[in-house]
Amino acid sequence: MTERPRPAPPSVTPPEPLLEDGAETSTRSPWQLFLLHFRRSHVAVLGAYLLAALYLMAVFAPFIAPYPQEQIDRQRFYHPPQRLHWVDPAGTFHPLPFVHPTRMVDPANFGYQEDRTHIQPLRWFVRGAPYRLFGVIPTRRHLFGVDPPGRVYLLGSDPSGRDVFSRLLFGSQISLTVGLVGIAISFTIGMLLGGIFGYFGGWVDTIIMGAPELLLTIPALYLFIALRSIFPVSLPSQQVYLAIVVILAFIGWAGLARIIRGMVLSIRRADYVAAAEALGMSHLRIIARHILPNTLSFVIVAVTVSIPGYILGEVVLSFLGLGVQEPAASWGNMLNQARNLRVLSSFPWMLFPPGIAIFVTVMAFNFLGDGLRDALDPRKVLGGRAG
Amino acid sequence: MPTFLLRRLLQAIPLLFGVTALTFLLLQLAPGDFLNTMSENPQISAGTLDAMRHRFGLDRPWYLQYALYLKNLLLHLDFGESFSRHQPVFAVLREGLGNTLLLASAAAVVTWGLAIPLGAWAAVRQHSWVDRGLSLLAFLWLSIPEVLSGLLLLFLAARTHLLPVGGMRSLDWEGLDTAGKAIDLLRHLALPALVVGLIPLASRMRQMRGNLLDVLRLDYVTTARAKGLDERTVVFKHALRNAINPLITLFGYTLGALLSGSFVAEIIFSWPGLGRITLDALLTQDQYLVLGSVLMASVVLVLGNLCADVLLAIADPRIVHD
Q1: B206 and chain A: CB distance < 8 Å anywhere?
Q2: Which GO terms describe its biological process (chain B) (predicted)?
Q3: Per-residue pLDDT reduced to its tens digit, A226-257
Q4: Domain-embedded: residue B272
């Protein structure tokens, strides 16, 4: 999606010989070797932990979020992020943070002031709006909250008085998964087509592999928009989600198929493929059992580094107003609300929460991808010849 | 050289046909019968619609339609009619394309103007804190999509009032003299060009660094040093020019990134270019305009790649004979 070739990452630790002697390699399985290499890269491990945290947050979004994503509050439009306090004006220390209730002092400019005479303690595991955890378990418990009718806005509220923090969490459910679903489809098509046509070759191969060439001829975003134009401009949320996934997969499969095809072309000349053929193995079995598994390490890296592109695809489309529609939240349509100049300069909490979330996600995938690339580099696995 | 150019030109033709086939296919796939929806719009006369039907043979089978579509495109530069703007698509696109190319060129100046010196600096000071700092920055910058950097710069501009926050011209544009107009345009151009130009910067900088490091290891550089030339002359006069050559090939790839990047920057900074036109067209369901601009952007990309090939052939005669 984004046409950014990535540079080599800054090496945080100087490259050191990972395996001192060849004898050691034989005692470790490929998986152990992979883990050994992977753990040496601190940024990659950091990326993996960040992603684990992000996806856990997405899974537990309705529990962590104090409010439903579409719950509006007509009293508090553009409420700024609230400060957490531990010490009240009298000087007493509270082990659990609290917030001061606010009231609007400047309705024209959405100015709010803290009422320092009252405190609203944050409470754990409060009862709130009902939801279904993981889509099945009905419950009303939320991780934290304040006693109603007060509301807590950790990251402020939007023009309809909806909690930005809650929307960020619910938005992650869309923004973080659209890439995974899209890449899963691209990956399947790419593996199938790349594997089969790389193995058999022929004129079908020539035509199919002309497609990546063609898709690269159209600037990515224009292609994206052209494909979006087949679908009606406004669609219900689920259908838009599906449409985005289909578009992303349609654009994305070509690149993967090309990589896999190239690898298959070289692997099929290997002696062990000839041996399998001589033993009478069927072509499809050879492709599935002997050739495709060998492309896997490269494919894993390719997939990891292309997921940010898929995520940004959704972000850009929703940012342009062509993706996920209100009231459903996605990081892209949250940014869309920040497009307005007045909003941007007066209410920066509309920009920074989704912006930082996108930045951290993309960065984590880049870190992880680079770590995987190093750890899965076969030259290293073969005993550190390449150093 | 002529054979080389001819070969490249011939390679571009099937691609362009592929793009027209794709846009035509998308035109057919658009939801509903497009002209029927249009006929409910009182602002569009029945005559315009009939003329469109006739021009594009919309009541004939699809292969005749495609033939007509190609004929109109190639012979008359007729991309169809923009219904939302009541103008031929080509007229709308021509103006937008000019603005987009202006933005993309300015962005290219930003990219290459920063990538070459910064990359060279990092290479000359390899393993120093400059080198490490620049590569760390480049790596972090890769994680900031243009949507974010654009909004961030817009935010800063809105807060500081140093630069205009959008559009292409100030309100008093007509009253300015030539120099004033140029300065005004540059001021409006600065932020979007920065957003678009910084996208490919990180990778170009790394490539420049790598190229220069490679060249500095070559024998002729050692010879130059052995002659007693000072390091400045060795780097700037002998090594740098050869290190820039491989970057020319990348110009074509960069153009794609610049065009896509311009799309978002145009929306954020209200720059009246191809991207804005395309988005507006999509929102008003102006299908011919959408696909016309997609086609236009692809043609620009193909031509850009062609130019890069020619430039490279001029810069490095070995290429032609390969």
Answers
A1: yes
A2: transmembrane transport
A3: 888 888 777 787 888 888 888 888 888 887 88
A4: yes
